[in-house]
Amino acid sequence: MAVVSATSPSLLCCTDRRTVFSARPALGSWPKTQFCTPKPFLAALDSQTRPSQPPATYKRDSKLTPLVCRADRRKPTTSVQQENDGSERLLQIALWLAEGVYILWLFLLPYAPGDPVWAISSDTVNSLVGLSLNFFFILPFLNSVGVGLIDAPVLHPMSEGLFNFVIGWTFMFAPLLFTDRKRDRYKWSLDALWGFQMFLTNTFLIPYMAIRLNEAESDYTPSTRSQLGSVMTNGAPIVGLAGGAICLISALWALFGRMDGNFGSISERWEFLIGYLGSERLAYAFIWDICSYAVFQPWLIGDNLQDVESSKIGIVNYLRFVPVVG
């Protein structure tokens, strides 16, 4: 609340942090102070509203006196903030529900294609081991150039391509996680989170996305990155190119890999993929991961556009919706 001195003009018009002049004379015999609220108003005092004093006692001043209203601009109502908090709370609940559905449907319940984790078959275990050995096609490549310390398992190129495509995309998430501006709301190790996501199961990313929506602490101080986080952050362009190359090679391998292995034409491989997704729990889970990545990639990039060079924000803001490319 601002206080106007007795020398102020009689015609008052106050707006936020604006100076308004009045042409009417000030009355020295008026009350000592008048109060100005930050809400704009126009008050005109005529002879009927003035104190009942003889006109001769009025002191007239022909000078224009500036009236400065120093009231703070009214802050926006909290309804927008409350609405944002409410929407984030609902989104957080939805993420936790999605995590519960993911675990129940893909790990425990027997209704999804393939075997649940408590009744996993030996064929599924052997397939998982073989896919892990062909991680990023390292063993098949070494065998192709004559390095045969370990023979790469021969699996259907569609299954190998799908596996490495998801792993390559997971690899590209590392710089996003280690540079996320809300990462410190997750109180556990980001190294462990990304390691579990990369080498075990992608179910760990959904809880992270929910936890990062927690309210920030008032005494928040950014934490220092781990050695792994520094490597992934400083080498983000290399990580992105390497992960993108793996995804591209995976797609090409699925269509054209092992052409001498009687795995059929492209149409036959596509038919295999449809049957593979409908009969193998691991492959079925990969489709869930691809869908979740397609949602989380633009989300994380959009929340961290301040880390992007100003000249590239426009293109990144569009490309973030393109799977893998963003």
From TrEMBL:
> Would the keyword Transmembrane helix turn up in this protein's UniProt record?
yes
Give the record's keywords alphabetically. Membrane, Transmembrane, Transmembrane helix
**Regions that span the bilayer:** 93-112, 124-142, 162-180, 192-211, 231-256
Looking at the keywords, is Cell cycle present?
A: no
According to UniProt, the name of this protein is Transmembrane protein
